[in-house]
Design goal:
The protein is α+β, with helices and mostly antiparallel strands and 165 residues long. The chain is built from one helix and ten strands; from the N terminus they run αββββββββββ.
Length: 165
């Protein structure tokens, strides 16, 4: 009887483990399909400065919207500028709306991770973005700038919401 309980418990544990692994793979495949489609949105929950300061962005407007050929970005910036403030926009954020530049996507199915690199610029600075997107949409973005310190954002990548008319 004890042996029967042990065997049934082992089988149950294996099937739960397999179900969890299958669900993770399905979440990753769905995220991969969304990214390959080319239209998705990112919203940051946190910003982290090079000094390690974490700032909650849940009550701040922020977005990074990918369309087939273009980007629309508004991310608040917290850090310092090496050009005496010349690199700061009037609202202090990273703001860009225009075509995708130097866009490169790579997929690592083994680690269930999607990397996207691209550039954006405004009249004051050039931004190099590196996005790491994981299953379920959890995303980490590192932004390197010419005249500002590096900043990181973490949040969620998901399907775009339909436009309100």
């Amino acid at each position: 009887m004890l042996l029967g309980l042990f065997v049934s418990f082992t089988i149950s544990a294996q099937s739960k483990k397999e179900m969890k692994k299958e669900k993770a793979l399905q979440e990753y495949q769905e995220m991969k399909a969304l990214i390959e489609n080319g239209e998705f949105d990112f919203q940051a929950d946190w910003a982290t400065t090079t000094q390690g300061r974490r700032i909650s962005l849940t009550s701040n407007a922020n977005f990074l919207k990918f369309n087939k050929d273009s980007l629309n970005i508004y991310l608040p910036y917290f850090g310092s500028s090496s050009s005496g403030g010349a690199a700061m926009t009037s609202d202090g954020g990273i703001v860009y709306s225009g075509p995708k530049r130097k866009f490169k996507m790579s997929v690592n199915d083994k680690k269930q991770k999607i990397n996207i690199d691209f550039d954006a610029s405004d009249k004051n600075d050039i931004y190099q973005f590196n996005m790491s997107i994981f299953r379920g949409g959890n995303t980490l973005i590192t932004v390197n700038c010419n005249y500002r310190t590096t900043i990181k954002y973490d949040g969620l990548t998901k399907k775009p919401k339909p436009e309100k008319k």
